[in-house]
Amino acid sequence: MDTQITTKFKINKSAKEVFEAIVDPVEIGNFWFSSSSERWEQGRMITLKYDEYGAEGIIHVLEVDPNKNIVFTWGAEHDEETVVTITLNELDKMSTTIEVCESGFKKEDPELVNKMVGQKGGWVYMLSCLKSYLENDVNNLRASMLN
Amino acid sequence: MDTQITTKFKINKSAKEVFEAIVDPVEIGNFWFSSSSERWEQGRMITLKYDEYGAEGIIHVLEVDPNKNIVFTWGAEHDEETVVTITLNELDKMSTTIEVCESGFKKEDPELVNKMVGQKGGWVYMLSCLKSYLENDVNNLRASMLN
């Protein structure tokens, strides 16, 4: 069984605008986490908070290639580390594809399928919020998925 | 393994507005399918088209309780019928929870996990588009998830 999950969207903005929305701690609050402790740069450990869900997590940024890709790990503090690779591909000045691939789920985990299904939902939600924010200035789509 | 997938969102609109967006063939084009052959009513077979993905499907509407719930089956033409139950719960005149539960995936299907992951992504996307449309009049969030 393939335990990677991949989600890809087309966003009608430049790669730079999509990239900045993710790495800039002020921008991120408009579509994803409520706060990010600092700008995402290679080698940094960043604390992300999601006030509405009472959640907090640490990501370790492994690679950043501006306007092209971002690789980080998260979940290490709960012994369920996965690797997230975000790849941007600028089609033209006004459209970019963004692909998010999360890998490293443990095949022996009895909760594997639930986790994969949950993470898929999370990534589709994040990318929907990102697109709605960048293209339409909507910053209130986030934080409304309920458990 | 639980093969149901459930997705729940809070939308800041009345249950009637959320309900109408789904059952009305004009409304649906703003956030989900490109067309729906007729209004969703109990017992009807409805043809849904998704022009951007070159896709078409038939749903069989089993139950409709206005502003409360909608139950339908789909996928019968591909011998992979599942049951979708949409439940609305109006919290007050300006907020409603919408829960979508899809069940009936075949446990012996070698593609079971991929299908569940894919459907989860689809429902999160549909509900994100629905919320963005109803709350912010955004009708261009749909049809941008790529395979």
From TrEMBL, chains A, B:
Taxonomic lineage: Bacteria, Bacillati, Bacillota, Bacilli, Bacillales
Name of the protein in its database record: Activator of Hsp90 ATPase homologue 1/2-like C-terminal domain-containing protein
Family under the similarity heading: Belongs to the AHA1 family.
Entry-linked Gene3D superfamilies: 3.30.530.20
Ranges of residues in domain Activator of Hsp90 ATPase homologue 1/2-like C-terminal: 14-135
